[in-house]
Design brief:
Layout (H helix, E strand, L loop, with lengths): L5 H11 L7 H9 L4 H12 L3 E3 L1 H6 L13 E6 L4 H16 L3 E5 L20 H15 L8 E6 L5 H10 L7 E6 L1 H9 L2 E7 L6 E7 H15 L3 E4 H6 L13 E2 L6 E2 L4 E8 L4 E2 L7 E2 L1 H21 L7 H9 L2 E7 L1 H7 L7 H29 L7 H4 L3 H4 L5 H13 L5 E3 L5 H6 L14 E5 L9 E5 L1 H9 L8 H7 L11 H12 L9 E4 L5 H13 L4 E6 L4 H5 L27 E5 L7 E7 L5 E8 L4 H16 L4 H8 L5 H8 L9 H13 L33 E4 L2 E4 L5 E2 L2
Parallel strand pairs: 2-3, 3-4, 4-5, 5-8, 11-14, 14-15, 18-19
Antiparallel strand pairs: 1-11, 2-11, 6-7, 8-19, 9-10, 12-13, 16-17, 20-21, 21-22, 23-24, 24-25
């Protein structure tokens, strides 16, 4: 079965199994037990087939009702804290309560008076938003579960006078390193950026009447924002006007959106919480990898309806498990859920469609149109059966652009009329999360709507010095593609991409195409999409500026960029590290299993060897791998010993220049005597001859295409990956707010 693989089993045992449970089937039976009889077996079948999965918080929390203080909701939205100690203390308590039960929290500091403002206590002047941020961050560090910091998101409006301090706060305060932060940019601000016009920062302190005004050049600030973003992966960028105008409840005056959850796929009002669940898009493709590949839309509709029903029943089950009274009241009033997807990139590969192409844009539009319309239809069906969410009002509901868009098609008109007649069970339906751990857990699929980060990577077993071996691990779709075509799993990523040109990695997709995919998807997503554009090391702030401005123009609610090897790696505690040097610690790369490589052979002369044939071999990456000699005379055992030691040094990672330097250091008196007598083409020693052959090969740009099978992870296959702090394999992918290890399933979203 698909769940018998090592990665799934590792995550299962570490994160989701309860005491007494031993298998994935045990987990499925426990989760399915809470649902009504009419869908219980459907839930089991869908989960056993990896067609869908509730989020990790739900998978673990179900079954602990009345047993442990846990929530089964993933994320919570807290108040836009008011400018007084009572409000700040209340926020601090709520964060503590939510965090102790496993939830992440988003909050805002828009209302906190700026730094330097007058306050009526012994401090005299305010420390600004930094005070609140430090206080909440300390709480998050103290109450996080399983020895992990609580996931937090702090936002600030672009008009706040402390915006510069907020921008640079992570550079100056390491204690805030684990808190995600975002600036909420309005359309007015972004237009000023585009037009290169001034923008006014302003704040009025309610308790004292003190006012702050400062005019800045919007474009200059935004350039500075992009520079910091390049270096730290923070602050994030939220286009708050788009968020507030494009959702299902934008017609309700009492529903105010100020911030998102820590991963930025869910925006909501104070006290709201969200259940998440995702559908596996790879499993809705029929006739995979053929010219007849197509989407089974009937299956997609079935899974959407089942998921919406599941999440509503899950919400009822977890009602009493909510941390705060206002969380339960929010369920009564709004009943927010978040249906998402994973394996979008795998789906494209199965369809033979290149991520970012015009064809992929059309496919995304068709699929998410069906998801949106089916989810709305099912929510209306459930409203007819169980009643609408508490605050539902048709006159407010019909103002939503998502509801209005239903009138553009005949099928949509039917859904529109059903909503008008029955109402909706939920005020939020579609929310696309990153699904980092879940997508790995369900069978090595791509996360959320992200492209493949890497087609595959090398993984080394560690079962003993003489038994270690390397094998390739691929994304689910790539693995199936290779098996279908009877291709070996020794192919490199580049060889696979060359043979199957629709298979691409994130580095192959332009930022503009990433934005196009997310933009068309956003039209059908009533909440938000978590998406990260990975950029190579050395990306300029100017390029990041263009990406963000284009994202705003395309109507995105927000997007994250992450530059490889930026300082964010240090923030997450997983920065690339050179191995610590110890004597007696380096094991050379083994030659066992290496295929013959076409290398260059050099004929050289020394005093004792008239014809010394030296062959220098390279890896397929052009690195010198070994050297061996076939001398016609002289002390063959000594020469062979030297070349064997040189080859071992090369395979141990010693720089070629250093080896050449050492070999060239000694001169042979016999060779020198012949040179003095006028002999030509005589090297200064046998060591010098070997050094010369290495130097000639080293300066040749020729590379070889054959694969070298070695007993370690290839650096080229793990480029852009980091060492996991838990399993210490170089298989950790960073995506701005989160880090996920594809080896052991470790994840960290703070």
């Amino acid at each position: 079965m698909w769940y018998d693989n090592e990665i799934t089993q590792g995550i299962l045992k570490k994160k989701y199994l309860h005491d007494g449970e031993k298998s994935y089937a045990d987990l499925v039976n426990r989760v399915a037990s809470i649902y009504s009889d009419d869908i219980k077996d459907k839930v089991k079948e869908a989960m056993l087939n990896a067609d869908l999965s509730p989020a990790g918080r739900t998978l673990y929390g179900i079954g602990y009702k009345d047993k442990k203080r846990l929530t089964i909701s993933n994320c919570y939205i807290e108040q836009n804290v008011e400018d007084d100690l009572e409000s700040i203390s209340k926020l601090d308590y709520n964060v503590s309560r939510i965090g102790s039960m496993g939830g992440g929290v988003g909050f805002c500091v828009d209302n906190i008076r700026p730094k330097g403002a007058i306050i009526n206590n012994s401090a005299r002047i305010s420390d600004g938003v930094a005070f609140v941020m430090r206080k909440i961050n300390n709480t998050g560090q103290n109450v996080g579960q399983w020895s992990r910091n609580l996931a937090l998101m702090c936002g600030i409006n672009c008009s706040h006078p402390d915006i510069y301090e907020f921008l640079h706060i992570k550079e100056n305060d390491e204690k805030l390193a684990s808190m995600n932060i975002s600036i909420k940019f309005t359309d007015e601000f972004m237009q000023a950026v585009v037009d290169d016009k001034p923008y006014e920062l302003h704040f009025k302190v309610k308790s004292t009447g003190e006012e702050f005004h400062k005019t800045i050049m919007a474009r200059e600030f935004f350039k500075e924002f992009c520079e910091v973003n390049r270096d730290y992966g923070d602050p994030g960028c939220i286009f708050i006007d788009k968020v507030r105008k494009h959702n299902l409840v934008c017609g309700y005056n009492d529903y105010v959106i100020d911030i998102s959850n820590p991963c930025a796929e869910y925006f909501a009002n104070d006290g709201n919480s969200c259940l998440l669940q995702s559908i596996n898009l790879y499993n809705i493709v029929e006739d995979k990898f053929t010219d007849n590949a197509h989407i089974n839309y009937d299956k997609l509709k079935y899974l959407v309806r089942l998921s919406v029903d599941m999440m509503n029943q899950t919400q009822d089950y977890g009602y009493s498990m909510q941390p705060l009274d206002k969380n339960r009241k929010n369920i009564d009033d709004w009943r927010s859920i978040g249906l998402g997807v994973f394996a979008l990139a795998d789906m494209f590969i199965a369809m033979k469609v290149k991520y970012g192409s015009d064809e992929s844009i059309k496919l995304v539009s068709d699929i998410f149109d069906v998801i949106n319309m089916t989810a709305l239809d099912e929510s209306a069906e459930l409203a007819k059966k169980y009643g609408t969410y508490g605050k539902y009002d048709w006159n407010n509901q019909k103002k939503s652009p998502i509801i209005k868009a239903l009138l553009l098609s005949d099928e949509g008109k039917k859904v529109y009329n059903k909503i008008k007649e029955n109402g909706l069970r939920n005020s939020s339906l579609i929310s696309v999360a990153p699904t980092g751990t879940i997508s790995l857990f369900m069978g090595k699929f791509s996360g959320g709507v992200e492209p493949l980060f890497r087609v595959g990577y090398d993984r080394t077993t560690h079962s003993g010095e003489d038994k270690n071996f390397v094998f390739r691990v691929f994304a689910h779709s790539v693995d199936d593609l290779l098996k279908l075509n009877n291709l070996p799993n020794t192919l490199t990523n580049e060889e696979i991409k060359k043979k199957f040109p629709w298979v691409v990695e994130s580095q192959d997709i332009t930022p503009i195409d990433r934005i196009r995919v997310q933009s068309v998807m956003q039209d059908y997503v009533d909440n938000a999409i978590s998406s990260t554009i990975n950029l190579p090391e050395g990306t300029s702030a100017e390029k990041i500026f263009d990406i963000y401005v284009n994202a705003w123009k395309q109507g995105l609610k927000g997007i994250t960029v992450f530059v490889d090897n930026c300082k964010r790696g240090n923030i997450l505690g997983v920065n690339k590290k050179e191995p610590e040097f110890k004597y007696d610690s380096i094991t050379p790369i083994s030659r066992r299993g290496v295929k013959e490589i076409g290398g260059a052979t050099y004929r050289l002369r020394t005093a004792c060897v008239d014809k010394m044939y030296l062959t220098v071999n390279k890896t397929d990456d052009g690195d010198i791998f070994e050297v061996f000699a076939n001398p016609s005379a002289g002390c063959t055992s000594n020469i062979t010993t030297i070349t064997r030691l040189v080859s071992m040094a090369l395979r141990s990672g010693i720089k070629v220049e250093e080896i050449i330097k050492e070999l060239s250091a000694m001169k042979c008196p016999a060779c020198q005597a012949l040179i003095r007598k006028g002999e030509k083409d005589i090297e200064l020693s046998c060591g010098n001859a070997i050094a010369k052959a290495l130097k000639l090969a080293y300066n040749t740009k020729e590379t070889h295409s054959k694969v070298v099978e070695v007993d370690n992870v290839k650096e080229d296959d793990t480029s852009g990956l980091y060492e996991c702090p838990e399993c210490h394999h170089k298989t950790l992918k960073l995506e701005a707010k989160c880090a996920v290890c594809s080896y052991c399933g470790y994840s960290k979203c703070n």
